[in-house]
């Protein structure tokens, strides 16, 4: 049927473009270790919707209102956000930037590193 025609066309295209399967190793995929995502303590924790919403609201207040509330208050809001939802990277990264601006370099490095570890665990921004 139609599927066989497509398969044959693909084989022909691969041959014409000198594509081979010489790098395929038999049994290779069977030895791939399945990795449990580190999000939510490797799927052993649950984040309540209420805490997620609170954390997100605190984060956005810190980011959007720091000019009005000041950096000290923004820091408190970011720390509260992280306390309510420690699984996302954005609050950590912003906290690192805040610490950097205050000359608190060791704290900045730790916060930024934590955030950069967490960021790729999600498929989308928070």
From TrEMBL:
<dbReference type="Pfam" id="PF07719">
    <property type="entry name" value="TPR_2"/>
</dbReference>
<dbReference type="InterPro" id="IPR011990">
    <property type="entry name" value="TPR-like_helical_dom_sf"/>
</dbReference>
<keyword id="KW-0802">TPR repeat</keyword>
<feature type="repeat" description="TPR">
    <location>
        <begin position="89"/>
        <end position="122"/>
    </location>
</feature>
<protein>
    <submittedName>
        <fullName>Uncharacterized protein</fullName>
    </submittedName>
</protein>
<keyword id="KW-0677">Repeat</keyword>
<dbReference type="InterPro" id="IPR019734">
    <property type="entry name" value="TPR_rpt"/>
</dbReference>
<dbReference type="InterPro" id="IPR013105">
    <property type="entry name" value="TPR_2"/>
</dbReference>
């Amino acid at each position: 049927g139609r599927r066989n025609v497509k398969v044959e066309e693909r084989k022909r295209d691969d041959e014409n473009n000198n594509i081979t399967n010489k790098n395929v190793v038999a049994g290779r995929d069977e030895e791939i270790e399945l990795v449990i995502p580190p999000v939510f303590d490797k799927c052993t924790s649950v984040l309540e919707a209420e805490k997620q919403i609170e954390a997100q609201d605190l984060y956005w207040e810190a980011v959007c209102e720091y000019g009005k509330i000041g950096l000290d208050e923004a820091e408190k809001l970011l720390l509260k956000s992280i306390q309510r939802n420690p699984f996302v990277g954005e609050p950590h990264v912003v906290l690192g930037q805040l610490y950097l601006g205050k000359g608190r370099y060791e704290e900045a490095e730790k916060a930024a590193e934590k955030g950069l570890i967490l960021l790729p665990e999600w498929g989308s921004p928070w």
